[in-house]
Design a protein that fits this description.
alpha+beta; Jelly Rolls; ten-stranded mixed beta sheet; 16 helices
Length: 883
């Protein structure tokens, strides 16, 4: 057993750690069964030599008897800003064997506000370049650049772009916080003269529509500044021990307008290649006609390190087909709807123009279309070099599968027009690590998981957006509701922590957590104040705790949670219900349900339960008691006003009704949510369960995005996974599999063939069911310290296999069944245990582990026999069959 994947929690990158007491975590690689950690020791040093000798350490934890591997806080000497550190961990297994990890480095950012640099620019609101030459006379040991630019920037050193990031820094409320990035530029510097260059665009800081689509411009958006600006420091340590810093100020920094003449964050950019200053970030470039940089008034927000994963290019898609639906209008089909930066390859005369129109929809005539006919396009003016010119946007992405090129030809004889050679799609998304894979013997289900994952990736940016086309906003309900689904396929711990910070910064003086964070637009009514959205301030920290063992969000957000709960209490009606908000939004396209009291108040109850949980965990017993009492109060009011004895489906039953006492025989969510949250009195549980099953007897989904997760969860908990499966596979809408059969490559927004957005993940809750129930992987306790393996024996499938890379390590499941045999292979990571639920063929069937019979108890539940085997870490193969 050996420690691997060393990580500092709450930071996606080891560059720029700003925690004074970093939290260390690691996974464990096991070779044998039943391996677990009984002790650990962490060493931290300023240099590799000291670490190797275990001398002159800044921290030695000592040998700690503990199985902890997810959250060990630093307790050594005070760390210094912008400095290298090295750490490793030793672990002891149950046999007393010691193993040691590889060395893992990290670099601190600013632990306090000690910036020497100034914000600079040219005093204008259009994109600009800035550069500075500097000389190095000694051999460089280490060098780091700390840099930000508002609204977005790219940084260059000696002619090369630094790193693979796109659209840094992350979107924030720039009046509260502004992110900077730390890059290692050691290998970019040379002895002699060097040049640092920064290219800055608008983003959301100083939005520029260019008379094209900018969704929030007329919806309360207010620019955070009127001048684009940048700040940077290059910290250099030399082999002789000396240090120097190059930072933005008036001395030596030159600026000029960019060849990017429009940088609309909603996906429209203009670029005039004739204006591009070739080699501008290289040594030897003559910048004598540039202007001197101007020191600008700093923005209001505080500089903080970018903790979430950077946006990077995950994949590059090539055209699978090129059509010409109209004369000299070319449509390149990239085969995948994506959040893309679209790259063109074109040649032609100087001053000729190419128009690039991305789209995720297509008209009957073969030209592209956009949702609501929004106007989004980019323009490229050729330099006319005689060679193929290549360009893609610098500061924006857009959701599209098809790219329509206008103003060009593909006829080599037409010299008077630019020739379009090629178009490529750069799929940009958060660099969050992939964690899940799933496939079944029905390839449509694997494809469904893929199109949901593609929609997730398209909306994982520096926020979780609703879509990459129309709004691009951080609607926060999906972080909580879709979080469990997303966490099966992407490791979003650091991004979700950033979303918590966004919510804290968006909270109003009254305590409201608005539906969008950062709040780049200010809506009214339920589109600003809806509990399923605002309650993400509680549900997201709970997901971080239960999935990743991360308590940081609870600690940082607890005051905001308390203020939000006080705000909600002030909005109570009927002595304890909530009746404002959007209800079950999306139950029909662009509409919410009319069951607001049922939906919102169930979430209100759950909020109190979570508050009690958090208060107890934080050691605040008086708060825990208060919130428990409040949850009980809400439970009593909920059941007194909404649980009614009525005639339903020809019988007298006590079931949940609308606030007016009417029972809706089609609505599944108002029965599912109280079941899911444990609101139902035990005496009435059976009736409510039967009613839920009856409302779902058509096997048709009748739910919007708010109720969907709770519907699937309640059906699963009441042993009716067969209903969930059939809902998924319906040939007509509402249906998931119809999206697959209609050829969608990302998940559309609503239950219809003509949804306005074709790249929304908000209805993707079936992904959680696929991993948790069909594949059968879930956490029982301790963030996968104790694991449940319980694949669903589905009569309409005979094979499912997949994996989930949990925060503790890789979990594998391969499950198949026939009339003669059930086969289940599992792999469990070190330092964990699992309860493996094995379906068996019936009374008298054998259960074999690696070919040998094992004793077992038989349980009959939900129409099936099964047994539960408890195992430690390692790989196991189980079979059940008759003699």
């Amino acid at each position: 057993m050996r420690p691997i994947f060393l990580k500092i929690k709450n930071f996606a990158s080891p560059l720029g750690i700003t925690a004074r007491k970093p939290i260390f975590s690691w996974q464990l690689q096991n070779k044998q069964k039943n391996e677990h950690q009984i002790r650990y020791r962490i060493l931290v040093a300023e240099d590799l030599h000291s670490l190797a000798l275990a001398q002159n350490l800044v921290w030695d934890s000592g040998i700690i008897t503990s199985s902890e591997q997810l959250a060990v806080s630093y307790a050594g000497l005070p760390l210094c800003s912008v400095k290298d550190y090295y750490w490793q961990v030793e672990v002891w297994d149950q046999e007393g064997h010691i193993s040691c990890s590889d060395v893992s480095p990290f670099v601190t950012g600013y632990l306090e506000d000690s910036w020497k640099a100034k914000w600079i620019g040219n005093g204008q609101s259009k994109p600009f370049y800035t550069r500075r030459s500097f000389e190095i006379n000694s051999k460089v040991k280490k060098a780091y650049v700390l840099v930000s630019g508002l609204g977005h920037f790219n940084c260059y050193m000696n002619g090369s772009k630094i790193g693979d990031h796109e659209m840094d820094p992350g979107w924030t409320n720039y009046h509260k916080s502004i992110q900077y990035t730390c890059f290692d530029v050691t290998d970019n510097l040379t002895q002699g003269w060097n040049v640092i260059g920064i290219h800055v665009g608008n983003g959301f800081f100083a939005g520029d529509s260019g008379s094209r689509h900018f969704y929030t411009m007329d919806k309360g958006y207010e620019p955070y500044g009127s001048q684009l600006m940048t700040i940077a420091e290059c910290h250099i340590e030399y082999e002789d021990g000396n240090r120097s810093t190059v930072h933005t100020n008036e001395e030596g920094w030159q600026v000029r307008n960019s060849a990017t003449t429009l940088a609309n964050v909603y996906g429209s950019e203009n670029f005039d290649a004739r204006l591009y200053p070739h080699s501008w970030s290289q040594v030897g470039y003559n910048d004598s006609d540039w202007q001197k940089a101007v020191i600008l008034n700093p923005p209001i927000g505080k500089l903080v390190v970018q903790n979430q994963p950077a946006i990077t290019v995950k994949n590059i898609y090539h055209a699978i087909q090129i059509n010409e639906p109209l004369p000299e209008v070319f449509v390149f089909d990239l085969g995948q709807n994506m959040s893309g930066m679209f790259e063109i390859y074109v040649s032609g005369s100087a001053g000729t123009k190419v128009t690039i129109k991305p789209g995720e929809l297509m008209r009957e005539d073969g030209t592209i279309a956009t949702p609501w006919d929004i106007v989004t396009y980019s323009e490229y003016i050729l330099e006319g070099t005689g060679e193929v010119e290549v360009w893609k946007p610098d500061f924006s992405c857009y959701g599209a599968r098809w790219i329509q090129i206008e103003g060009c030809t593909r006829d080599v004889e037409k010299k008077y027009k630019p020739f379009i050679h090629d178009v490529k799609g750069h799929f940009v998304t958060s660099d969050s690590v992939d964690t899940g894979e799933l496939e079944t013997n029905d390839p449509r289900i694997g494809k469904l998981a893929d199109i949901i994952t593609k929609a997730i990736e398209s909306n994982l940016q520096s926020v979780h957006s609703d879509c990459p086309t129309i709004e691009k906003l951080g609607w926060i309900e999906t972080a909580g509701l879709m979080g469990p689904s997303i966490m099966y396929v992407k490791h979003v711990e650091d991004l979700w922590l950033k979303i918590v910070q966004d919510m804290i910064e968006a909270q109003t003086d009254e305590g409201l957590i608005p539906d969008i964070a950062p709040e780049y637009s200010k809506f009214e009514g339920g589109f600003r104040d809806s509990i399923a959205w605002g309650s993400s301030i509680l549900t997201v920290p709970d997901l971080l705790l239960e999935t990743y063992g991360n308590e940081t969000a609870i600690q940082m957000a607890y005051p905001a949670m308390k203020t939000y709960m006080a705000y909600l209490k002030s909005k109570e009606v009927y002595g304890g219900l909530i009746n404002h908000g959007l209800g079950d939004w999306g139950i029909h396209p662009q509409t919410g349900g009319d069951y607001i009291e049922n939906v919102e108040s169930a979430i209100y109850y759950e909020n109190y339960r979570l508050m009690a949980k958090f208060a107890e965990r934080l050691g605040i017993p008086e708060d825990a008691n208060y919130y428990l009492q409040e949850s009980e109060r809400i439970r009593k009011v909920y059941n007194a006003l909404l649980l009614k004895t009525v005639t339903c489906f020809g019988q007298i039953r006590t079931v949940y009704c609308k606030i007016d006492g009417k029972f809706d025989p089609e609505n599944q969510v108002i029965q599912a949510m109280p079941l899911f949250f444990g609101l139902v009195p035990e005496a009435n549980r059976k009736e409510v369960e039967l009613t839920l099953h009856k409302t779902a007897s058509t096997r048709q989904i009748h739910s919007g995005e708010i109720g969907l997760r709770f519907l699937f969860g309640a059906l699963s908990a009441t042993k009716r996974n067969d209903i969930v499966f059939d809902m998924m596979m319906q040939p007509e809408h509402p249906s998931y599999i119809r999206f697959v059969e209609k050829g969608e490559t990302a998940l559309p927004e609503f239950w219809t063939d003509d949804a306005r957005s074709r790249n929304h993940d908000m209805m993707g809750h079936i992904l959680e069911w696929l991993y948790k129930d069909l594949l059968g992987i879930s956490s029982i306790s301790g963030a996968y310290k104790e694991i449940s393996i319980a694949p669903y024996l589905c009569e309409k499938l005979h094979h499912v296999r997949g994996k989930y890379h949990s925060v503790r390590g890789l979990i594998l499941v391969d499950f198949s069944h026939s009339k003669e045999k059930v086969s289940l292979s599992v792999s469990i990571p070190a330092n964990t245990s699992a309860q493996v639920r094995i379906p068996i063929l019936g009374i008298g069937a054998l259960v074999l582990e690696n070919g040998y019979p094992i004793s077992h108890d038989v349980v009959y539940e939900g129409g099936y026999y099964y047994t539960i085997v408890r195992v430690g870490s390692g790989s196991y193969h189980f079979e059940t069959c008759f003699k």
